[in-house]
Amino acid sequence: MAPLIALAGLIAIAVALGAIILVIAYPNLPSLEALTDYRPKVPLRIYTADGYLIGEFGEERRAVVSIQDVPPIMKQAILAAEDDRFYQHGGIDYLGVVRAAATNLIGGSKRQGASTITQQVARNFFLSSEKTYTRKLYEALLSFKIENNLTKDQILELYMNQIFLGQRAYGFAAAAQIYFGKSLKDITAAEAAMLAGLPKAPSAYNPIANPKRAKIRQQYVLRRMHDLGFINDVQYESALKEPIVIKRELSEYAVHAEFAAEMARQIAAERFPDDVYSRGLKVYTTLIKSEQEAAYQSLRRGVMDYDRRHGYRGAEAYIDLSALPGEQEETLDEALQDIADIGDLVPALVLAADAKQIRVYRKGGETILLTGDALKFASRMLDDKAPPNKRIKRGAIIRLQKDDKGNWQISQLPEVESAFVAVTPRDGSIRALVGGFDFNRNKFNHVTQAWRQPGSSFKPFIYSAALEKGFSPNSIINDEPIVISASQTGSQAWEPHNYDGKYEGPMKLRTALAKSKNMVSIRILQAIGTHYAQDYASRFGFDPEKHPPYLTMALGAGSVTPWQMVTAYSVFANGGYRIKPFIVRDIRDENNQIVAEAAKTAAGEESIRVIDPRNAFLMDGMLRDVTIYGTAAKASVSLKRQDLAGKTGTTNEYVDAWFCGYQMQVAACSWVGFDQPRKLGDKETGGAAALPIWIGYMSRALREIPVETMAAPEGLVAYGSGKDRTYVYAENAAKEAAADEEQAENSAPKPDLSSPPSD
After folding, report:
1. With contact defined as beta carbons under 8 Å apart, do 277 and 266 qualify?
2. Global pTM?
3. Which CATH fold topology does 420-582+600-746 show?
4. In angstroms, what CA-CA distances link 177 with 61, 195, 210, 407, 732?
């Protein structure tokens, strides 16, 4: 009897103490406003004009999802992994508490927990993660308060959006995108189980960093789902066998537009500096997904083609395999962990190599045997005579890339850089922008930041200035050697030459531009005056101080950016208007309301006209000649259309290669060169190195755009027929006719346009 009385007394004391604690502590618990008015930190997101995500910026990568939009399989996986009695208990799972207490008493520690989903919500929003009895008490009291104020679905929704799941991902919707590259609604049972296994230890069970441990945890969650009846035998076995494809790329978005996303981020941060990374702003750029991806792929292909033309340079680095404990997958993965993929150029560790085959290991457990054609590109670095610090041997790091047939080939990281930008000439909206070969390797945006010599791609602006001075496309200029004195150049005597070293005597302006004749450009500039040309070029957006008024300006010796060049060529494309390119269409708040938008200009507004429409029309005709039978004839042949216009550019010693051109609806510019300027190589002209990138993009951009050429504006007089048909300003018609008569009397030879020249 006495023991029973003592036990009853102890129970009464415990109840009294509990009541006292409730009376004292419960009123002092924090308000649940953070839960009832849930406002998570939502990152800044950048989209294409057609709604595809291209960038996300913020400490927490989060995509808030309503409980109604969570697929049942995801809910079931979470319940199986974390709290299968969630919908039965009142915030505390007493059976779990007893089980955990017993384990802790036996083990003599406080390592075993029994937190419910409600307790985890209480901890994540209000408490620390320290394992003390005081914190556990407050956690329990908060859990009761939460359960009394929110429904079970509301609690589960908060948990699913707030929980940290590794890789800066908060919430299951963000994690599904980051780990699998898909929306939460599209995940499978196997993927749901892997995600549900993360809350217990996001680092230890991270499928990117620890794929084996993640797989073990996933199998446990699937077994729990099966035991609880959430999935049947067939579903269970199928999920166990399903291969899990984890996104390992640095880019987690459907479109490669990292440089554009960074530009948009800077614009948004300047406009909303206080909370730009947490209030859920959405920035819509002007990029078009299909064209952006075409530009990215074309630039990568153009750079890699250039790189292959100049041979294999050898192993990227070496790892001392003798220092590693064997060739186990985990050991090799750890050795490669700091070597990033660069797009589709993946690093591989050479395990064995001879002249006939190479055995390599790449991250994720794949061993690849390379033989035959896969070795051709790097064959000279397999030879015993290869430099020791470049030879492919055991321990070497090399790059692999899949060919068009899906077979692995030896490749390498290119040293050369490139840039591409495309714009809609009528309003300035940027359609595609690629600032370099790979953003994660080199964040320098060559489109906006690289000041380079334009070479012959600058000649159209000299020719346009000449038209304003009374020249016409049929004006005759002598293509013969010339010597420029030091006083004329501003430095030393100059003896320029044509690219090909050939001189063809008197020729028309249109022919000289098509063939990129340097001597003609210089003589034109002499005739119109360097200061006039310098001032005239500023109409197109060029900085006068970067184009000194010397005759070298005729050959593009100044400095430009690709952004300036595409702006300038747009003037010819739209009939004479200088538009202002822009990349952000609008910025929207968390309620999708527009809070900022671009200030736009459009062709047709006379306030932005910078050249006579007749000038633009005549220049368009001459620039189309360039793409039909001039230095860029490859363009019209490849794209099978006659409405393309543009100009190649190659600077002295082949340091920079350009092609800038347009169709009336799209203007674009491509550039290739080294960051530390040096020779690209013999014959690496604008037509060879830069034009293919432009063609690759235009093949997609013009796919649904019909052939279209400019209509002649008023104030022009046409004369001649066929290939010789041309236009001149009406006020110059008489002078032009007299010049034609003089030319006929002198029997000037007709230039040969039968084969395309080089720039």
Report:
1. no
2. 0.84
3. Beta-lactamase (3.40.710)
4. 10, 11, 18, 28, 65
Contact 301/398 with Cβ under 8 angstroms? no
Q: How far is CA 113 from CA 105, 219, 248, 335, in A?
A: 12, 21, 33, 36
Instruction: Find where tokens 């370099």 sit.
Output: 436
Q: Any idea which fold 53-241 has?
A: Penicillin binding protein transpeptidase fold (1.10.3810)
Calculate the alpha carbon distances from 440 to 229, 458, 745 in Å. 45, 31, 64
- The mean predicted confidence, pLDDT, of the chain is 88
249 a catalytic residue: no
Bridge partners (DSSP) of residue 408 are: 402
143-200: pLDDT as tens digits: 888 888 889 999 999 999 989 998 888 899 989 988 988 889 999 999 999 999 999 8
What residues does each domain of the chain span?
Answer: 53-241, 316-411, 420-582+600-746
The pair of three-digit structure tokens given for residue 225, joined into one six-digit string: 């789902």
Phi, psi of 533 (to 5 degrees): -65, -40
Rounded-to-10 torsion of CA 637, 639, 642, 644: -110
| Count of positions (residues) in the chain | 759
Choice among 82-86, 237-241, 538-542, 752-756 with the minimum mean pLDDT: 752-756
Can you say how many angstroms the Cα of residue 703 is from the centroid of all Cα atoms in its chain? 22
β pairing state of 366-371 and 408-411: unpaired
Other beta carbons within 10 angstroms of residue 147's beta carbon come to 18
Q: How far apart are CA 639 and CA 283, in angstroms?
A: 34
DSSP string, 630-652: STTHHHHHHHT-S--EEEEEE-G
Cβ-contact 196, 221 below 8 angstroms: yes
Question: Can you point out the beta strands (E) in 102-214?
Answer: 169-170
**Element (H or E) spanning 173, and its range?**
helix 172-180
What are the tokens at 451? 């000041």
Assess whether 570 carries a catalytic annotation: no
**Separation CA 530–CA 541 (nearest Å):** 17
Query: 112 pLDDT band (50/70/90 cuts)?
Result: very low
Q: Compute the distance between CA of residue 201 and CA of residue 199 in angstroms, rounded to an integer.
A: 5
State the Cα–Cα distance between residues 199 and 172, nearest whole angstrom.
10
| Distance between CA atoms of residues 396 and 347, nearest Å | 10
Q: Which of 352, 349, 344 is nearest to 414 (CA)?
A: 344
pLDDT of residue 128: 53
If one counts every other C-beta atom within 10 angstroms of the C-beta of residue 292, the result is 28
Interatomic CA distance for residues 632 and 648, integer angstroms: 6
Q: Considering only CA atoms, give the Rg of the chain.
A: 34
The three-state secondary structure class of 718 is: strand
Q: In DSSP terms, which residues pair with 429 in a beta bridge?
A: 582
- Rounded CA gap, 664 and 362, in Å? 47
Of 407, 682, 454, 483, the closest CA to residue 561 belongs to 454
Are domains 53-241 and 316-411 of this chain identical in fold? no
* Residues ≥6 apart with Cβ < 8 Å to 295: 420, 422, 432, 433, 434, 697
The partner residues of 477 in beta bridges, in order of sequence, read 507
Given 143, 411, 429, 456, the catalytic residue: 456
Euclidean distance between CA atoms 439 and 177, whole angstroms: 21
CATH superfamily of 316-411: Nucleic acid-binding proteins (2.40.50.140)
| Span between the terminal Cα atoms of the chain, in Å | 110
Strand partners, 386: none
